[in-house]
Design goal:
Layout lengths: L1 E5 L9 E5 L9 E10 L27 E9 L11 E5 L11 E5 L3 E3 L6 H4 L3 H14 L7 E4 L5 H12 L3 E6 L4 H7 L3 E4 L11 E6 L3 H7 L3 E9 L12 E4 L6 H12 L7 E6 L3 H5 L8 E5 L4
Parallel strand pairs: 8-9, 8-11, 9-10, 11-12, 12-13, 14-15
Antiparallel strand pairs: 1-2, 3-4, 3-6, 3-15, 4-5, 5-7
Length: about 300
């Protein structure tokens, strides 16, 4: 099969290439998926799991990418709950070869059935952003109806889904971003938008939950905006400044089959719309990792045509 591989951590994006790789082995409780569309995070080349397995042993060449949508073509020993020929989407393991490949082996529990009327490119934009948004808002942030949430990067991949979920939950939403994000964020349903380049973050006022995807100075300053008893939630880095009368949580997204299925239902019902940006073929995946002009939405790699 063909896959995008990385061989040298120091080379970064320049070390990525389209190469021939062995067909993956389906271990116990695995499935092999024919990947139709895949998503990735540009910072993956800095993650330890990209270069080592669960035991910390070096593994190269490595296949990046952790979001996928495709069709099950093989079941590992003992695998239940999925069947050959079934459309699925979800998260590949952090410390195994990923989804920028024609085939990938994934633990079955990390995947959910994909309804026939959801396109693979849309489904591939859901796993990381959708699960991160849900877990950040409701599991870690404990957001409830009538509360106020401040969402940094409100027009981004995670932020745009978080805005939609928070609005449906009955929360008041303050969004932040750049000036070019304002119209998009307002269209998603934010009540107030703060341009972080031209306006003072502190003018946003207090919130019961602050959801950060930026880190650094923005994360530090956000601690002061957390209302008494509230929560600062971040996926960027462990916070160094704590809210005076609240708590701070740093987390990494976890697979959740039931929640993935719920997100898919919301997409089908028109209650949730992932923002898909550019869609590129597998051979152009290295270019998609390269920093360049900001493209609204999540870049998806089309691996196999339907």
């Amino acid at each position: 099969m063909q896959a995008i591989t990385v061989r040298d951590r120091d080379a970064g994006v320049a070390g990525m290439s389209l190469t021939d790789m062995p067909y993956p082995h389906a271990a116990e409780n695995d499935v092999v998926v024919r990947v139709h569309a895949a998503g990735f995070t540009t910072g993956e080349l800095d993650w330890p799991g990209t270069w080592t397995d669960r035991a910390g042993r070096v593994r190269t060449p490595s296949v990046p990418g952790h979001e996928l949508s495709g069709v099950v073509v093989e079941l590992g020993y003992g695998t239940t709950g999925l069947s050959v020929g079934q459309r699925v989407f979800g998260l590949a393991d952090w410390t195994r070869n990923g989804t920028l490949a024609e085939y990938t082996a994934v633990e079955a529990r990390n995947l959910a059935p994909l309804p026939a009327d959801i396109d693979h490119t849309v489904a591939a934009a859901l796993p990381v952003s959708g699960l991160t948004a849900w877990q950040g808002l409701f599991h870690h942030g404990r957001l409830t109806s009538g509360q106020t949430v401040l969402i940094h990067g409100a027009a981004g991949g995670v932020g745009s889904i978080a805005v939609q979920l928070a609005r449906e939950a009955g929360a008041r939403v303050i969004g932040t971003g750049r000036a070019s994000d304002r119209d998009r964020a307002l269209a998603l349903g934010v009540d107030t938008f703060i341009d972080l380049e031209a306006e003072k973050l502190e003018d946003a006022g207090e919130a019961d939950v602050v959801f950060d995807v930026i880190g650094g100075d923005i994360l530090d300053r956000s601690a002061a905006l957390v209302r008494a008893g509230g929560t600062l939630v971040t996926i960027a880095m462990p916070p160094t400044v704590q809210p005076k009368e609240g708590r701070a949580v740093f987390f990494v997204v976890e697979p959740d089959r039931a929640r993935l299925a719920d997100l898919a239902t919301r997409v089908r019902d028109g209650r949730l719309t992932p923002t898909v940006g550019a869609v590129r073929p597998l051979a152009e995946a290295p270019t998609a990792f390269t920093p360049g002009a900001r493209i609204p939405g999540k870049t998806i790699i089309r691996v196999t045509e339907d």
